[in-house]
Amino acid sequence: MSTAAPLDVAVVKRDFPVLGRSVHGRPLVYLDSAATSQKPASVLDAMDAYYRETNANVHRGVYEMAADATERFEAGRTAVARLVGAPREGTIFTKNATEAINLVAWAWGARNLSSGDEIVVTQMEHHSNIVPWQLVAEMTGARVRFAPVTPDGELDMDGLRALIGSATRMVAVVHVSNVLGTINPVPEVARMAREVGALCLADGSQSVPHMPVDFDELDVDFLAFTGHKMLGPTGIGVLVGRPAILDEMEPFLGGGEMISDVREDGSTWNDLPWKFEAGTPPIAEAVGLGAAVEYLEGFGMDAVRAHEREMARTLLDGLAEVPGLVVHGPTDPDRRGAAVSFSLPDVHPHDLAQHLDQDGVAVRAGHHCAKPLMRVLKVPATSRASAYLYNDARDVEVLVAALGRARSYFAT
Amino acid sequence: MSTAAPLDVAVVKRDFPVLGRSVHGRPLVYLDSAATSQKPASVLDAMDAYYRETNANVHRGVYEMAADATERFEAGRTAVARLVGAPREGTIFTKNATEAINLVAWAWGARNLSSGDEIVVTQMEHHSNIVPWQLVAEMTGARVRFAPVTPDGELDMDGLRALIGSATRMVAVVHVSNVLGTINPVPEVARMAREVGALCLADGSQSVPHMPVDFDELDVDFLAFTGHKMLGPTGIGVLVGRPAILDEMEPFLGGGEMISDVREDGSTWNDLPWKFEAGTPPIAEAVGLGAAVEYLEGFGMDAVRAHEREMARTLLDGLAEVPGLVVHGPTDPDRRGAAVSFSLPDVHPHDLAQHLDQDGVAVRAGHHCAKPLMRVLKVPATSRASAYLYNDARDVEVLVAALGRARSYFAT
Amino acid sequence: MGGLDDLYQEIILDHYRNQRNTGRLDDATVAVDQNNPLCGDEIHLELHIDDGRLTEVAHSGEGCSISQSSASMMSEALAGKTEDEALDLVEHFRLVMHGEQDADEDRLGDAIALEGVAKYPVRIKCALLSWMAAKDAILTHRSGDQTGG
Amino acid sequence: MGGLDDLYQEIILDHYRNQRNTGRLDDATVAVDQNNPLCGDEIHLELHIDDGRLTEVAHSGEGCSISQSSASMMSEALAGKTEDEALDLVEHFRLVMHGEQDADEDRLGDAIALEGVAKYPVRIKCALLSWMAAKDAILTHRSGDQTGG
Ligand SMILES: Cc1ncc(COP(=O)(O)O)c(C=O)c1O
Ligand SMILES: Cc1ncc(COP(=O)(O)O)c(C=O)c1O
After folding, report:
1. When you count CB atoms within 10 A of the terminal residue's CB, does the N or C end of chain C come out lower?
2. What is the pLDDT of residue B412?
3. Which residues of B touch D121 (CB under 8 A)?
4. Secondary structure (DSSP) of A184-249
5. Is-contact B274 D37, C-beta < 8 A?
6. Does the fold of domain A44-296 match that of domain A9-30+300-411?
7. Cβ–Cβ gap A259/B23 under 8 Å
8. Quick check: do D and B touch, 3+ CB pairs under 8 A?
């Protein structure tokens, strides 16, 4: 399968204008792609060209510019659907992954859940795959249950199995953890959900950007992800859903675009996917996301994944050189992505991130929107270095050297 | 008040790259700004610079790029709040005006409405200010009532007064109609709502871009508008709300950014405005919208309004030359914006829009997301020409000439 | 429609102004309604099907010159055809509209005049509306046969 | 913290490693908890207020070197001050952090070492956390007086 050519990172770096900048006089080493990715010039140019050449509102315009705008917008959808092997009509644009999950929580959950029903999530979820369910549970009387995480940062499959039962209506699980890097066995989780008649949602925010993801292979009912983490712009996310289920659902947001007819005494809905896209959609953002998908496809997701497996290994090896440093999450690069969280005794993550910034290195410090997981790990916060296709071993070297300096500063 | 210098449209046009293009060999005459506005180069450059210089996720990053990104993002909020005289903490970024209204419908309406309660809207609302209320009404047992429109396209204030009573909980009204151009007396409507203890929401999608709008003067509880119609990018909208009311409301979308703490047994919320901004916000879009506000402020909204009053007059005068053409909406430029809908006997709006496109003129044909109003006007669709600060009398001349050609083509 | 060949424009305008086969049938075998939600064009279509053959076609509705003339042309093109022939012809017209097949004037009749619409993506739906309604009517009729017998 | 003046760094690290006035009071007049939701820094602050004067200040919590050292410095700076003096000093420190006032070493004591934090917008909240907690505690105490008497 992985016959793809390896990435030439030196060439890749040149496609990303921001990577040429310096920070505090040092060349930028960007290791925070799990928070948001940088954008290749092709993505920025596609959006700029859209605005400069043919900006118009989509779908309703007869004139040529509007037709052209609609075509570019819908081509973005086609590209995204193709990337994850999803049907176009099941590929819905939202503003981010968070809205995508809320869409399911509200449009499906608020109308289908009731007292006694259970929603199963995991302890390694991002807040965006916890809070929507808590809000809906509170409104409907349903209950949110948390599947445990093993001490080495994997999903505890036995613990999960024990939670899933006849009361379960939804199992919502992160595909790749943004803190631990863990790759979860989503198809197995989906099977467990299906066996009890529950639906399954995968949060693909950290998987779709970084590895081949196929909606059918995942075998879930819903897949959420976000544009800005996959080389695309802010302001756009994606919900992929099984059309048969989406068809049965009432709409979420109401307004323009999503209607078939509006009368004073009630309204009827547009076809999929537009039924779930109320108001003017993120047009330029869809154009940009389409360009991001094309950029990724130029390498192939197999090659991206192969590179990131190597980056995970390089990061783990490099971090192992720092005395006392503890990595949270799997240590086998085959079982994880290239987002690596760690703790350094005596150095608070915020102090560390600021020290590294002085050396031009951008890493994230904090709870990474995963407070329940922080409690499981028994840390108030972690530091996280996360790589993407534009990072190389040299970046890791700079990181490790800077870590050493920070350590000796605080350890003295 | 209007001591502002008049706009020099020839200069303004040069700020908008797309206006230099041609369509079917003719110079573009863009008269569809009520659907979406074009963008000045300064807006495109601000977004591009954000991505090329300092793109990072906001609020949670310690490193310099993240701090810079956060600053540019929040500066966008400050600019928007300043433009409409709103408190910063009451200025919430959404994905468009539609989401802004849905936010109120769901976060306030779904939790506060019940059987017997009434929501009053008008017959001239955009679908985005109808369907959210219908959806919430259907879930809560509340009822949506439609205030009538007079034959000359104004809000029937007596009819509205007759509808507002002790059962009324919300009055949601468009400030300027996207079809008729009518400027509604929002402060008076807000007073009527307050007298019965109801809240008032104004849809400012067609007013904020085009005239001075002051949140306090409008005297409403909520004001919704959208970035892409005010020279800003797609993918961003704004809800302004009274902080005291927003404070009392539960959140709408759940996820990252909007929390204070997340525990397995429940969560607590962040301060305003972030409590209502779940997930990664439209960062580059806020930067772009901030630049759009600065561009508008460069002229002053008084000057923009003065220009558009003249454009409304020029459009009305020009259209009056076309035999048989019927304008829908007020004919007094002081009482209306520069979006003018009309019908031409024997020429279907779609045919007309396509004919005009052949002459380089972009106008919109259809129901303009206002099907209830189409029924009141007893037309299946209308044609609409809408001007902005970059249009001039010459654009109207081209339109009128093209209308004449279309008319003779279909009339023969 | 501006930009189309002159001769074709004349045929389209003729069908638009003098629509053939409008109204309702006394004894429709099947009737369907379709509309284009984005532009509001509407069609009501009735077929009389006798022994697998479309003996009568009648349409009414409102819309632009393209959707109205197309309905008129469709009614002429399909009348007298067997169900299968009609479905084939609808598919041919659909492919022509999407630029995936060359137009066959012998089969399309006056509808050949709509060939140029393929260049205008937003108008394709207008042209297709009545033809898709015809397909829908035939399939509805068939499924009715099946469930009925 | 990298980028800060060396002398100041030493003072900060000293307060970070050897925090003054930590723990709890036996007879706190008022106690408050505050946290910084975005980075998770937490402080628990207790004051003993006697006749309008902060006779004892004790803090505990967790966080980065800035928030922890700042709490330690705050406890030294405010101990012994009257409520009004303490509120004034908190306001002075806040303005220094926002770059709106020059730091007054006589009043701030070791907290002068945090002056440079004003250059790091994201760390200002860390530095301010304990001082805002002190303000909150004093105001809580006052409103308690009012409601109580
Ligand atoms: C009056 C009015 N309200 C609401 C909207 C919806 O704006 P958006 O599509 O950006 O949500 C529009 C524009 O389409 C409008 O004209
Ligand atoms: C695993 C995971 N889920 C969801 C999200 C939310 O994405 P967004 O903020 O774009 O909605 C993120 C990123 O912050 C994430 O890492």
Report:
1. C
2. 65
3. 67, 70-71
4. --HHHHHHHHHHTT-EEEEE-TTTTTTS---HHHHT-SEEEEEGGGTTS-SS-EEEEE-HHHHHHS
5. no
6. no
7. no
8. yes
Count CB-CB contacts under 10 A for residue C60: 15
Contact D120 B67 (CB under 8 A): yes
Chain B residue with minimum CA distance to A253: B102
pLDDT digits (tens, 9 = 90+) for A227-260: 999 999 999 999 999 999 999 999 999 999 999 8
What's the pTM?
A: 0.95
Return the residue in B179, B344, B351 with the most chain C beta carbons within 10 A, the one to mutate for interface testing.
Answer: B351
The ipTM of this complex is: 0.93
* Cβ-defined contacts of C46-50 (< 8 Å, 24+): C46/C137, C47/C134, C47/C137, C47/C138, C47/C141, C49/C83, C49/C138, C49/C141
Q: How close B293 comes to chain A (CA, Å)?
A: 18
> How far apart, in whole angstroms, are the C-alpha atoms of residue B392 and residue B307?
9
Ligand 2 centre from A339 Cα, in Å?
A: 13
Q: What CATH code is carried by the domain that includes residue C122?
A: 3.90.1010.10
Say if the Cβ atoms of B260 and D123 lie within 8 Å.
no
> Is the CB of B314 within 6 Å of ligand 1?
no
Domain A9-30+300-411 architecture: Alpha-Beta Complex (3.90)
CATH level 3 topology of A44-296: Aspartate Aminotransferase; domain 2 (3.40.640)
Tokens 């409590």 found at: B275
Range of the domain at D74: 2-148
Domain ranges of chain B: 9-30+300-411, 44-296
Q: How far apart are CA A204 and CA A201, in angstroms?
A: 9
Domains contained in chain C, number: 1
The response to whether residue B184 sits with its C-beta less than 6 Å from ligand 1 reads no
For A7, B382, C12, C91, C103, the CA distances from C127, given in Å and listed in that order, are: 48, 20, 11, 13, 14
**pLDDT in 10s for each residue of chain D, 149 residues:** 455 566 678 999 999 999 999 999 999 999 999 988 767 789 999 999 999 999 999 999 989 999 999 999 999 999 999 999 999 999 999 999 999 999 999 999 999 999 999 888 888 999 999 999 999 999 999 987 533 32
Contact: A261, C37; criterion CB under 8 Å: yes
